[in-house]
Write a structure and sequence with these properties.
28% of the residues lie in helices and 26% in strands. The chain is α+β, with helices and mostly antiparallel strands and 874 residues long.
């Protein structure tokens, strides 16, 4: 048996070795094939080249269009067919590449239905649409003298390795692609800003580059990270509030369409995260989505919710990856711009050197022709019998005159001279020839000067490009710093919360139990028990918190204005304590105790006050104790607000049988300090931006815009201010405003004074004629206006106007008064005048009360926080 096993093993060993060899062979093949495939996909299909910012298919399309260019439009189908001579991957990839280039409106001029980047509609078939290269593309992208070529895939044609782009085209158009084990996502940047950055780089000045999207919108670039992997750009749609029931989306996030945005809005509405009545797509040449809201839904809160729950707010992850020297390279957009600018300098230098060489050659040929004719060298070739004798004679005849030439006279020069027709010689004009030679010499000097100052020349080149093609290419995406939107604060209350207070269960599925409140499935809730324990937890279908629940509410993190007023009896000492506290930050699902934590502790009184209200309570002590004051009142406003873990003040050392509220309280927190952040254009109470004042109750905020409109808003932190704000402040109904307005119909400046009337909508105080505008606005009580004159009245002395005397206060719709009949060069509000206020505007001085004025010998002191010693007297 052992011998048989040895024989079988000996027979199997060669087979195993052969299989191992074949396996290694196949592994090597797959390894090499995969590398070849990955290299091909990344370099030849997915990732753009840094030199011209193009992928191979795009480059082949543009080069083909250049060869076909005759100034007229060509059918896209024809362009696709011609490009197939260079591109081996079929017509669909060529068509899609050409449509993509055309929709970017930079290198290709289009005609026909090329689709819509706002709606996502596709372009028409190639046989129906036409294209040609733009003038910009012809100027910056093509020069056969500086282009390197390589054979096409089948060797029948030549194609450029890269196009000689004299512009940071990659950053202007952007690029994206998915290769093998890597990807690319370079965002588009603003045309004019790229030129400004290139000029700044050439001048050794700092520059910054941020994306600019063709669909507009608002962008936060605080984490752009120079376009490198790991950065991000937050993008939001521009949503305008027409009125309290209508929102209009005029600009959409990059990469999204109105169709996808409307779909996301409807899905959020169906999920209960937002509430809308209906949404309409009125998009044509620009985006326009109209959202109608139902009654009692806040437009400002809906805007925030749209940013959180729909495609109105997205985040884009840039990944600057390019092909450089046939290898992938990850570099920032600043470095890409520097390299593109350096390449522009190199190409311009090369073009100038070629131009200089051509001018020199033209100068030599013109000078040889002049010598040949002026010195009658042609007469010396008459006796010559052969062509060789003719060329030798011409060469000898030129030698005395060409000693200072920068190159030798060649055989080709002599052949050219020998072929000059006799008619040209007979009509030769020496003066014109000399003038032409001088012009060549001047042009050569200019080119040499440009070469000697190539940086200045390149700067002038970029300035020329900006002047010629930069009009209408202003920034479309507005750069802002976005505020953080708390999801729980904007989500719609899409579910109902129920509770079994006795057994301690709380949830959205307990529909047979007591209804608590409306909430969302993203909210946290805070639950207080009779024993003083409390906990914060996520809304769920059903959860157990503990028996004897006394309060359930929606919890808002960092809410310092919700104050809980509590009286509890300590289970160990039977002393009753009183305290006020907010709950700002807690660990979810962790149990806290607002008492001393002893057994049999009990909450005797509890109230939750959303604005820090402090009520008055009545405390009843046990009647069998025969106390002098068995019943007394306590005002919670005398209790200082402290932390949730504080012990509290002693309310009484005697057993309390009942505590009840006898009078509603007012807020003890004072006005809410409101700030306006100019970067985010949002209100906040965290101290960011300009302080507007302390607000409470019905106080309003006044907004005056650059286009001469005003409106009053609440101080709700969810308010949006998308307009260009001239002034924003706390509203004072008594303040008088002075405005200088330009009436376009009259072509005159008027001055008017008015008080702001209460209105929630933006109303204009400008003249109704189109083109009228707000020149200046002032809020001084007694403003003084300084005028200087120009034109035919330039010699007139400066004039100072007491505006209060010049014009009275009228309504904001009043036309106003013409400032001056003379030609005004400048108007400025200067130091206001000092005058006594009219009697009706003087504020009444408060009547002060002194001890001598009072008949009360023991006046009641001002209430203050009660110490434990004071409270224990009860």
């Amino acid at each position: 048996m052992e011998e048989q096993n040895d024989d079988l093993q000996a027979q199997e060993e060669p087979k195993i070795e052969a299989i191992a060899e074949n396996t290694q062979y196949i592994n090597d093949y797959f390894y090499n094939w995969y590398l070849d495939y990955a290299s091909y996909v990344n370099i030849d299909r997915a990732i753009p080249y840094i030199e011209d910012g193009l992928k191979p298919v795009q480059r082949r399309v543009l080069y083909t269009m250049k060869k076909m260019d005759d100034g007229r439009f060509n059918k896209v189908a024809s362009i696709v067919g011609e490009t197939m001579k260079l591109h081996p991957h079929g017509d669909s990839s060529i068509y899609e590449a050409l449509v993509g280039i055309g929709q970017k409106d930079l290198l290709v001029t289009t005609q026909g239905n090329w689709g819509n980047i706002f709606t996502g509609d596709d372009a028409a078939a190639g046989r129906y649409i036409e294209a040609r290269l733009s003038k910009f593309a012809l100027e910056i992208l093509f020069n056969a003298k500086t282009t390197e070529f390589t054979p096409s895939y089948d060797g029948r044609n030549e194609e450029p390795i890269t196009l000689p782009a004299k512009f940071p085209l990659l950053l202007a158009q952007g690029a994206d692609g998915i290769g093998v084990s890597m990807a690319c996502n370079i965002l588009p940047h603003n045309f004019n800003e790229l030129i400004d950055a290139s000029i700044a780089y050439l001048k050794n000045e700092p520059f910054e580059l941020y994306p600019d999207f063709p669909t507009g919108g608002l962008i936060d670039v605080s984490k752009y990270n120079d376009g490198l992997k790991g950065g991000r750009v937050r993008v939001r749609a521009r949503i305008n509030k027409i009125d309290n029931k209508t929102l209009v989306i005029n600009e959409i996030p990059y990469g999204k369409t109105t169709t996808s945005i409307i779909k996301s809005i409807l899905e959020a509405n169906d999920a209960g995260k937002i509430k809308i009545k209906h949404v309409d797509d009125d998009t044509a040449a620009s985006a326009e989505i109209v959202i109608t809201l139902p009654a009692n839904v806040s437009a400002d809160e809906t805007i925030d919710a749209l940013y959180v729950f729909t495609e109105c707010g997205i985040s884009i992850a840039p990944n600057a990856n390019v092909i450089d020297n046939k290898k992938p390279l990850f570099i920032g957009v600043s470095e890409i711009l520097k390299r593109n600018t350096d390449q522009t300098v190199f190409l311009l230098t090369k073009e100038l050197e070629i131009t200089l060489a051509e001018l020199k050659e033209s100068w030599i040929k013109t000078s040889l022709e002049k010598i040949f004719i002026e010195h009658e060298v042609y007469e010396k070739i008459k006796p010559c019998k052969t062509e060789e004798d003719i060329l030798t004679t011409i060469d000898k005849g030129l030698k005395p005159y060409v000693k200072d030439f920068w190159r030798e006279v060649t055989r080709e020069d002599c052949i050219t001279l020998s072929n000059i027709p006799i008619k040209k010689i007979s009509k030769y004009n020496t003066y014109k020839a000399e003038e032409y030679i001088k012009s060549l010499e001047q042009r050569m000097e200019d080119v040499k000067n440009d070469l000697a100052h190539i940086i200045d020349y390149t700067i002038r080149y970029f300035q020329h490009i900006k002047e010629k093609y930069g009009v209408g290419r202003e920034r479309k995406s507005e750069i802002r710093n976005f505020e953080k939107i708390e999801v729980t604060q904007v989500v719609n209350a899409n579910t109902k919360l129920y509770a079994n207070y006795e057994d301690g269960f709380v949830g959205t599925s307990l529909k047979k139990e007591t209804f608590v409140c409306d909430c969302s499935d993203l909210d946290d809730i805070i639950v207080f028990q009779q024993n003083g324990k409390f906990k914060v937890s996520k809304v769920s279908d059903k959860a157990f918190f503990g028996k004897d629940i006394i309060h359930i509410g929606v919890f808002r993190k960092n809410d310092e204005r919700t104050v809980y007023n509590v009286a509890y009896r300590d289970g160990e000492t039977n002393v009753t304590y009183i305290k006020r506290f907010p709950v700002t930050g807690v660990t979810r699902d962790k149990e806290y105790d607002l008492t001393l934590g002893t057994d049999k502790t009990k909450i005797l009184y509890f109230s939750a006050n959303p604005n820090g209200e402090a009520e008055i309570i009545k405390v009843r002590l046990r009647s069998d104790l025969r106390l002098r004051k068995p019943i007394f009142e306590v005002d919670f406003s005398t209790i200082a607000i402290k932390g949730k873990s504080s012990k509290g003040n002693i309310l009484t050392k005697h057993p309390a049988t009942k505590i009840e509220k006898i009078e509603e309280g007012v807020s003890t927190l004072g006005g809410r300090k409101i700030y306006f952040n100019k970067d985010t254009k949002r209100l906040n109470d965290a101290g960011y931006g300009d302080f507007l004042g302390e607000f409470k109750g019905s106080d309003k905020i006044l907004v005056i815009t650059d286009d001469g409109k005003f409106a009053l808003t609440t101080f709700d932190l969810s308010n949006h201010f998308e307009c260009t704000i001239k002034c924003i402040e706390k509203y004072n109904e008594k303040k008088i405003w002075t405005a200088i307005v330009y009436d376009a119909e009259q072509d005159l400046n008027y001055i008017k004074r008015f008080k702001i009337e209460e209105t929630a909508k933006y109303v204009s105080f400008l003249p109704e004629s189109e083109g009228s505008k707000l020149v200046k606005i002032n809020d001084d009580r007694f403003p003084q206006l300084c005028l200087s004159f120009g034109g035919k009245h330039a010699n007139r002395e400066m004039e100072y106007i007491d505006v209060d005397e010049f014009i009275g206060v009228k309504g904001y719709k009043a036309k106003g008064k013409r400032i001056s009949p003379y030609t005004i060069d400048m108007m400025e509000f200067v130091e206001p005048l000092e005058k006594e206020l009219p009697e009706d505007e003087k504020e009444e001085e408060p009547i002060s009360s002194t001890p001598s004025d009072s008949n009360d010998e023991n006046p009641t002191p001002e209430p203050g926080p009660m110490s434990g010693e004071q409270m224990s007297l009860f």
